[in-house]
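Re: your question about GTP cyclohydrolase 1 type 2 homolog

S., sorry for the slow reply, the queue was backed up all week. Below is exactly what I fed in.
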Amino acid sequence: MKTSNVISLVETFAPSGYAASWDNCGVQIVGPEREIKKVAVALDPMPHVISRALDWGADFILTHHPLAIDQRLPAKLDWFRDVMKQVLCADVTLCAAHTSLDVQFGGVVSWLGRELELQDLKVLDVVAENDAGEILGYGCIGDLESVLPLENFVERVALATGCEVIAVSGPAPEKVKRVAMCPGSGSSLMDKAFAQGADVFITGDVKYHSAQESVGAVLDVGHFSLEEEMMRRFAVVLEQNLEDGVEVRFFTGHNPFAYYVQGKGVCKS
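Result:
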């Protein structure tokens, strides 16, 4: 299987044409057309991740987040220059599926909604319809099979995501039935979620004033947890669709945030 074939497969699941206008999806650093034997998948193209992938022997690297959103030069001695040097010296291809993957409601991006067994799951923020007539957009919304007290629901989310710390803001509902979510930084969809009847909205990177002004309960599970698991699952999908003999390995990332919990010390979330 050649480099171009792997790129085409990624495009099948996350077409760059559906990426946000501000985004930088697709090939980040081009490598030669070659026979691909090992595909590395990760959330972030950071030096420690790229190093492990190359040590494994990856000849194609796919990440969710792009190397850079805006065009930039390696004009500083920083992580960006380090990654460029690593990838160019190894002569491999680095590719990103960012918002092009985020809008694929029927794919791995909605994993938590399925894990929570939400009923009548649908797109929260519709942005397009693909050639097959499938609705594309950001986030999802659906209903729990049975209502739960908020605290019980938060515990269920914690177990599903592996988060030891979840920031809860906004007015607490008496019961949770309708749930909306958006992986990554989705606080811009809070109003849309509650306008569609959500009792709870799950996302990451919620700012102070957004939390303060929210008309409903918001669970901030961080930017990392939902998208890290999403890419872990995407690696499985790719492996199932690549030719026999092509290995795929997911390389775990590093959540930049840790939290001190009294009596427990520093916890990752």
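The first strand starts at residue 26 and ends at 29. The chain has a mean pLDDT of 96.

Happy to talk it through on Thursday.
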